Amino acid sequence: METAYLKKCFGTCLTQALAEVARVRPSDPIEYLAHWLYHYRSITVAEEKRRQEELQLKEARDRSAEEAKTTEMLKEEGYQIQQKCEKCHQELPSTSFSSDKTPALQEDTAPLEEKTMRQESRPGASSVISEMPQRAIPS
């Protein structure tokens, strides 16, 4: 049970530390072992932090590439829509009237224009006339 705990917590670092103590043979092996373990811990923390930053950077690059791809697709779709619209406008027949139809249209609108003019000429029918100040007519 203790061995499983030690393997879980220390893994190979304790065996590496003890091998280093045996190789160097410092005057105070306990202090040397403690410093070696602290140093090992700071290195592993720094490596883990670097890995996390690399992962975040990779994810940011992937998102940026995906956004660029989406933007390019949207530009292409916009260009295709613009091309279709230009094609449709070129295919539409001319909407101008021919000269022989114009007098007929003028004749049809003439009675409406006369009726409108008669309504506006009546007293009180026009808002401009009703807003004008009234003058007393001397008798």
UniProtKB/TrEMBL annotation:
The keyword Coiled coil applies. InterPro entries: Dpy-30_motif (IPR007858), DYDC-like_DD (IPR049630), Sdc1/DPY30 (IPR037856). The gene is Dydc2. Belongs to the dpy-30 family. Residues 112-121 have a biased composition (Basic and acidic residues). Residues 43-77 form a coiled coil. The lineage of its organism: Eukaryota, Metazoa, Chordata, Craniata, Vertebrata. It comes from Mus caroli (Ryukyu mouse). Keywords: Coiled coil. Residues 92-101 have a biased composition (Polar residues). This is DPY30 domain-containing protein 2. One of its GO terms (cellular component) is Set1C/COMPASS complex. It holds the Pfam family Dpy-30. Residues 92-139 are annotated as: Disordered. Gene3D superfamilies: cAMP-dependent protein kinase regulatory subunit, dimerization-anchoring domain. Transmembrane segments: none annotated.
